[in-house]
Design brief:
By secondary structure, this protein is an alpha+beta fold. It folds into two domains: 111 residues, GTP cyclohydrolase I, C-terminal domain/NADPH-dependent 7-cyano-7-deazaguanine reductase, N-terminal domain (GTP Cyclohydrolase I, domain 2, 2-Layer Sandwich); 135 residues, GTP cyclohydrolase I, C-terminal domain/NADPH-dependent 7-cyano-7-deazaguanine reductase, N-terminal domain (GTP Cyclohydrolase I, domain 2, 2-Layer Sandwich), CATH 3.30.1130. It is 22% helix and 33% strand. The strands form two sheets. Strands 2, 3, 5, 6, 7, 8, 9, 10 and 11 form a nine-stranded mixed sheet that branches. Strands 1-4 form a two-stranded antiparallel ribbon. A hairpin with a 6-residue loop joins β8 and β9. The longest helix is centred in the middle third of the chain and has 20 residues.
Length: 285
């Protein structure tokens, strides 16, 4: 890749060629997921917080971008290249008014990303305060760490997951703030909150789920790969009627990444997937 691991040279004018893409199948082969026959649907919801450009009179405008990309796309955008791409607008004079400038920026970015990833990327830019928040009504399992006797390995281990057979379907919404992994390329720590909702004739053992989440602590993966791995392991174990896994990662380099994988998009908040709605961040975002 042109930018990862190299000394950063910030572009001083609009540069779309700096964008780089990553083939999703590279991350899926190891967990036996075929991009042509996905066991889920979903989106990657990214927020970019370092967006700025100039009006024609030289006055700067700042905004937050919300990008929504379907997980069925062949590629995902590499985050450092996206950061540098957005920085290339910092001194660009786009329009005489804020509204026209935002509209022009949306047109350019939507076109560039959709062409890069060979799919429709929904893009919106927000200049006002977020007014809505993803509501989950989930049970936090972090306090169950007292029920874990010891952890000696911090690499992904689905063998620790346990379930209990139920006489009727079990529905649960669970979350943890203890998700931590490392960037696949730079090794920098990535912190996140993970939300899991499912309906199954099996019930997840909560301490074992927490132990599994903690087992990612020294894994080096992209955010999307972490979520797809969790989804696949839970899908294979639970044989669920419904399953959703969403991770909200802490922003790094002015971008936060929130992959969502689900058995049915109707299980996911429409506000979360709508790029025109800016939401209040989760814990640590």
């Amino acid at each position: 890749m042109k930018t990862l691991g190299e000394k950063t040279v910030y572009p001083t004018e609009y540069t779309s060629s700096i964008l780089e893409k990553v083939d999703r199948q590279l991350n899926r082969t190891g967990i036996e997921i075929d991009s042509n026959n996905l066991p889920f649907t979903g989106y990657d919801v990214w927020h970019a917080y370092e967006i700025s450009f100039l009006l024609t009179n030289g006055v700067p405008v700042s905004a937050i971008a919300k990008l929504v990309t379907p997980c069925e796309s062949k590629y995902l955008v590499e985050s450092k290249s996206l950061k540098l791409y957005f920085n290339s607008f910092n001194m660009e004079r786009l329009a005489p008014s804020v509204a026209d400038g935002i509209a022009k920026l949306k047109e350019i970015v939507s076109k560039d990303l959709s062409e890069l990833l060979e799919c429709i990327v929904t893009v919106n830019f927000h200049t006002s305060q977020a007014t809505t928040k993803y509501s989950n009504e989930s049970i936090c399992i972090d306090g169950l760490n007292q029920d874990i006797s010891e952890i000696t390995s911090y690499t992904e281990n689905p063998e620790v997951l346990q379930v209990h057979k139920q006489s009727t379907s079990c529905s649960e919404k669970l979350f943890s703030t203890l998700l931590k992994s490392n960037c696949k390329v730079t090794g920098q720590p990535d912190w996140g909150n993970v939300f899991i909702a499912y309906k199954s004739s099996f019930q997840l053992d909560h301490p074992s789920l927490l132990k599994y989440i903690i087992s990612f602590r020294e894994e080096n993966h992209f955010h999307e790969e972490i979520v797809e791995t969790m989804y696949k392991r839970l899908f294979d174990l639970l044989n669920p009627e419904e399953l959703t896994v969403i991770a909200y990662y802490t922003r790094r380099g002015g971008i936060d990444i929130n992959p969502c994988r689900t058995s049915d998009l109707r299980l996911v908040s429409k506000q979360f997937l709508d790029s025109s709605i800016l939401q209040v961040g989760q814990f640590r975002q």
